[in-house]
Design goal:
The protein has 2 helices and 3 strands; from the N terminus they run E-E-E-H-H.
Length: 64
């Protein structure tokens, strides 16, 4: 990687604050999910997060 390259530049990110997809990290890192290779993958980021959280919640309930 070049010394002046921005990590994730040219990839897609999902901004949890705005609900928008960004090409290259444009916002504060604490607001971003990614990087993703395509805009479509980034757009599905929150659906994946929600599905994983629900699966983990079910696992926790099964352990009780």
């Amino acid at each position: 990687m070049a010394a002046n390259a921005i990590p994730g530049e040219g990839q897609y990110w999902y901004n949890i604050g705005t609900g928008q997809v960004e090409k290259g990290p444009q916002s504060d890192w604490s607001q971003l999910l990614g990087p993703y290779r395509t805009e479509a993958e980034a757009q599905e980021a929150m659906a994946k997060v929600q599905a994983r959280n629900e699966a983990w919640d079910e696992e926790d309930e099964d352990e009780d």
